[in-house]
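Provenance

Sequences were taken from public entries as deposited. Structures were produced by running a predictor on each sequence independently, with no templates supplied. The record for Fucose isomerase from Arthrospiribacter ruber is shown for reference.
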Amino acid sequence: MIFKGKEQKKVSLGVIIGNRNFFPDSLVSKARKELIELLNSININGILLSDQDTKLGGVETFQDAVKCAKLFSEHKNDIVGILVILPNFGDERGVAETLKLADLNVPVLIQGYPDDLNKLDVARRRDAWCGKISVCNNLYQYGIKYSLTTDHVCSPSDPKYLKDLQDFVSVCRVVRGMKSARIGAIGARPGGFNTVRYSEKLLQHSGISVVTVDLSEILGKANKIDNESAEVKKRLELINSYANVGRTPAQALFQIAKMDIALNDFIQENALDATAIQCWTSVQENYGCNVCTSMSMMSENMQPSACEVDVTGTLTMYAMQLASGSPSALVDWNNNYAEDPEKCVLFHCGNWAKSFLPDIEISTAPILGTTVGEENTYGALSGRTPASNLTFGRISTDDVKGKIKAYIGEGELTNDELKTFGNKAVAKIPNLQDLMKYVCKNGFEHHVVMNASHSAHILEEALENYMGWEVYRH
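Predicted structure for Fucose isomerase:
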């Protein structure tokens, strides 16, 4: 349907069909029929007035607005966004009053029909070009946020409008998901990583909750699980089917499986959307393995997981996942790529989702192993990400200025030669040097998130327009 990757739940959109009584009735009737057919064809549930509820099913008077708002309120748990359709000039107050009364606080997309040069007589003209401006003016006055189509006016049969509609549904998913996101912070931030500090209070102000737990609780529960239990055997089967275990010893696989069970129990108990885990060095020193395999499996299953308790990193993973419908990965802006100013190496010791690693294998973390013993780092993943589209970005809390900010952009992942261990990729990004200057000058983290899509425009609209955050689009 609209999304690639994991199967997405069918969404519901409220629909307001604007009307003015001195325009031809046939224009409204035809628009209603066209829109219903379009939404059905792309598996979207449209919630709109019937032609028995109001004249032609449109919204024109205050009484119409009350009826439409009541309908929307009855479906407030399902509606993720509102479509405003203007087959003619429409009634600007009717649209604004409906949205005010319904008070759903969801994204709004405004579409106006184009006129035909041969049909500008009184009996057939639309004037939606002008009406759309009036509707937007009223919504602006009411403080209601809204989105616009690529072209000022367009027909539902126009491929541009179909793309606008698909992107709008993605924006709705991001906004709904972010406004109610629940992030698990598992363990304390590693002492050497001031870079991943963040403000829980700023996040909560935007509706994002952080649920904390001491790492010892997870490790303690994992240690109490019997190696011979049916639950462990089932989890071992999942791990073996997920990745090539390579030379990973049986004991390490048991450790990985039991911690995976403890983590998933915590996620289920707290209804978490994503997690950020203290992945080193306590896990290795006190438990004896890496948690990367579990994090990879969670991210692949659309429950993003980031290392080093990078809460805003995993929040970024979640946002990109909602925008694209496919998994995201937390990476380091790690190395230059030879002397090419527009290429760099993306790297992590090993927790990327399987979608990024066709040659995935459970291995060790050599760098970390130099201090904790490589035998205690089994569970890290090895693999190379092949060429694909790339959306990159980062959400961060700027505590000093009291705001949430982000940068996003697009590029490509390439197949350029790269000889190293861990999880690795080569990225080509236009004006990369300017981007690095922006990252450094504005105090962003060394972690960035990648997604195999081109969805920066969706994230920009959702995060800047509807979440109200400061967004830099590279």
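The CA atoms of residues 37 and 225 lie 54 Å apart.
Residues 1-7 have pLDDT under 50 and may be disordered.
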